[in-house]
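User: My advisor, Dr. K., asked me to get a structural model of this assembly before our group meeting. I'm new to this, so sorry if the format is off. These are the inputs:
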Amino acid sequence: MGGTDAKDILGLPKTPLSLTQEKKSRPQKESHRKPDGISREVYALTGGVAPLMPSIDVTHLKRRPPPDEKVAWQWLPVKSSARNDDLQLYHWVRVVNDVPPSADYSFAKYNKSVDVLKYTDDEYENHLTDPVWTKEETDQLFELCERFDLRFTVIADRFPLSRTVEELKDRYYSVTRALLRATAQSPSELANHPLMKEPYDMTRDRERKRALSMVLSQSRHQEKKDAEILAEAKRITEMRLAARRAAEPDVPANENIGSVSPSSNSQLPATAVAPSTLTMADYTSTLASLRMLHVYLRTYGLEQMVQAASSAVGLRTIKRVEQTLQDLGVNLKPKVPTKTVCDEHLELRKEILTLLNLQKQYKESEGSSHREGTYAAMPDTPKDRVFASEPFSFGGERPIKKEQKRKGPGRQSDTPSPAHKRPRKMKASDL
Amino acid sequence: MTSNSSSKKQAQDPPESSEPTLKSLRTKMTKSDEKKKLKDIEISVPLVYGNIAFWLGKKASEYQSHKWAVYVRGATNEDISVVIKKVVFQLHSSFNNPTRVIEEPPFEVSESGWGEFEIAITLHFHSDVCDKPLSLYHHLKLYPEDESGPLTMKKPVVVEHYDEIVFPDPSESFLARVQNHPALTFPRLPSGYNLPAPMQVDDNGKKKRGDTKDHSLGQWFTSFSEADELLQLAAARQQVQAHIAKLRRQISLLEGQNQTIKTGSDP
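Assistant: The format is fine. Below is the predicted structure of the whole assembly, which you can bring to the meeting.
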């Protein structure tokens, strides 16, 4: 049916064959009644045919009230149990069959209030005196508490003498506790009272608020650092647990690790110093956990140290380090892992990490200088694969397995022209 | 019982009843000293482990196509039984008695079969060395890398791995016992640190020689040398360091330029 419209638009003559076809199909279509409950246009969206599997029962689509009910809306007075004065308010009410609804005002159930205890003067004298608080103050406090439903920030604002929120809370809760204890019939009913089970501690509250505000005021940078440190700590504790499980129980623990905790975040300067201290902590902790094993394979030890070095960097950087190692012709896992070889290998990895960081730094500062409209000194090596095409001549040992195709031995230039760049897995823009 | 306390026992021999208190006292007093002394000392035992497999050729049957031996030996073919008490090879469950315990050097298991599987090699050490065993894993290789080549009875398939056992905090008795033994690398002791003289070793005549220098399969052993790898690493490090220096120069150059741009408007 869309075809005829298209032809209309294009101004093409309609073929006599299609015309007769349309005439036939149209009466057929009109015999389909649109089903109730959906408008005609919506129905037409589905192609004018009922869906094969009705997703919603058609009768649910538009619920009309049953015809035997008579519904009207009336402006009626409302009675609320929440009000205790005589104020008479009115609102629209849905009346069915002339019977107005008899339920309470629907929002009355939200009218809750706190049960603030009241004390007599005697009780005050006996149980509730306090060196810091006078009776008048306590009375005022309690009155405010009742008025403002224990919203201590408001109460603190209204309190005539300036006291902190924690002090007010402390006084209120200790008075209530003392009262409860004094007036309780039996100790059992007290035991379940929430105030008895978890008493208010002013100092703890202060600490909690301070910690919260610290967390709230953290910059994103610090947040990331915290997450890093927490991940580190988790990894360290897991390693220590594993090592301790394997080792004897009375080996003294290494104190270096205990100092790295999230709360020391404020002490760490938010500069490049922090990442390096983190890695040093990694190494010392890895060494410590290795020591605790009492015996380990050197390849295992190297693995752990490599992991420690790469724990603070992303997967992409790790892959780049490995790629660089391959380019340099170094085995990713040394074939002859003696102590010297492993130490050298680790140092090499660290240096490669430094190199990659420097490259990133260089790119950033180059980018910013470009923005300033200057031409930076162009480097003469491709940035991402630093050792891509440099021939290295030492000992003559070359890795046998190579996935990349190497150019012929004649190539000695440092800068490969773009046309000859071999397919790289990662681009410079990936950084 | 830590290795430290065992060495103290030998040296001082305290009475039984007061042992715990004495031990704790001693640990408190000398722990820091001991720690300082033994902190950077480690004993390492270079090992080679792997397998050699011969194709049986005409005599090969479906279930016994290869004759192989899996072993652990000292990297320089010295006697590692000075450190290792026994080695347990865990073979595939289809073998008879798959748990083979070898208590004397040479630490190896010879078998015949057709399949390649992972073998768990557990090294158990003498009590004064370490209480905990150490596990290695080796995948038994029977068929050569080059799958298309013909199998030959003459040359076996040899797969060997080099690794070292590291003892990061060896006990005094261990140190004393193994000083000057060729099978391991003995650390340089801090000056003034004196080890007690080694205890009398067993009658040499009775003990079988534990080194593998004259092993029947010795001709197939690989010789591992760290020289090549060190050379590789040194060259690589040099290159990386050169690049780092260059980049650093370039970065400071750039930053200098940026500075001048920023302050360009100043008179």
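One thing worth pointing out at the meeting: Residues 67 and 112 of chain B are 4 Å apart (CA to CA).

User: Perfect, thanks a lot.
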